[in-house]
């Protein structure tokens, strides 16, 4: 009986370890940490829809065609790049902007750390995913008019 107890305990323990390691392997970037990394971008970029600074609004940037925000004066390389931003090319662009897109107006040295890239991408995806509460308020606002 003592053995049975030991084995149950032992296997629960092992499966907990296996579970927690597979969870941490699954975890990609950390949104909170990404928000901190985004401070490096925030002098030039906002994640608010339609808010352009020196750089274009990054609202919904993942899945967006490069150089397509109205009212932004992009560089020629950006508008003619034919890029659709995804995690892969954003990662390359943000690691070394001016090496990835020679002639870009984005004067940013780049993010050296893989973790910073993971985290800032997690933040960008989180901050700019369609927000149901905002959408609802917008419809409500039109209704009351
Ligand atoms: C010094 C200002 C500056 C900083 C800092 C900066 N950017 Fe930019 N960014 C720009 C400008 C200007 C452009 C337009 C580039 C062009 O037209 O070639 C741009 C373009 C971009 C684009 C392409 C957008 C589009 O509409 O195609 C992305 C994505 C982007 N920046 C992400 C970032 C992120 C993420 C950071 C921080 C890690 C960052 N930028 C830091 C100025 C900046």
Describe this structure in words.
The chain has helices at residues 2-26, 31-37, 39-42, 76-79, 87-95, 97-100, 114-127, 132-144. With 145 residues, the chain is mainly α. The protein has one domain (28-130): Cytochrome c-like domain (Cytochrome Bc1 Complex, Chain D, domain 2, Orthogonal Bundle), CATH 1.10.760.10. Helix 2 (31-37) crosses helix 7 (114-127) and helix 5 packs across helix 7 (114-127). The longest helix is centred in the N-terminal third of the chain and has 25 residues, at 2-26. It is elongated. The site of heme C has 26 residues, from helix 3 and helix 5.
CATH superfamily: Cytochrome c-like domain
User: Overall mean pLDDT score?
Assistant: 84
Give a quick account of the main beta sheet: strands, pairing sense, barrel closure.
Answer: none
Based on helices, strands and strand pairing, what is the structural class?
A: mainly alpha
Alpha carbon gyration radius: 22 Å
Bound molecules: heme C
Shape: elongated
Q: Indicate the CATH architecture.
A: Orthogonal Bundle
Compressed to H and E, one letter per element, the order equals: HHHHHHHH
- Find the count of extended strands (DSSP E, 2+ residues): 0
CATH topology: Cytochrome Bc1 Complex, Chain D, domain 2
Give the helix level as a range of percent.
55-70%
**Number of alpha- plus pi-helical segments:** 8
Low-confidence stretches: 134-145
Tally of domains: 1
Strand content: under 5%
């Amino acid at each position: 009986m003592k053995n049975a107890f030991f084995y149950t305990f032992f296997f629960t323990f092992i499966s907990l370890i296996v579970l927690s390691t597979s969870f941490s392997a699954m975890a990609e970037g950390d949104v909170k940490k990404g928000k901190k990394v985004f401070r490096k971008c925030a002098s030039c970029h906002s994640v608010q829809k339609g808010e352009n600074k020196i750089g274009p609004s990054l609202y919904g940037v993942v899945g967006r065609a490069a150089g397509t925000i109205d009212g932004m004066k992009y560089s020629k390389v950006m508008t003619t790049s034919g890029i659709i931003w995804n995690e892969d090319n954003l990662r390359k662009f943000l690691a070394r902007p001016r090496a990835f897109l020679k002639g870009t107006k984005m004067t940013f040295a780049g993010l050296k750390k893989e973790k910073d890239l993971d985290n800032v991408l997690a933040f960008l995806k989180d901050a700019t995913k369609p927000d149901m509460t905002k959408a609802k308020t917008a419809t409500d606002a039109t209704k009351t008019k």
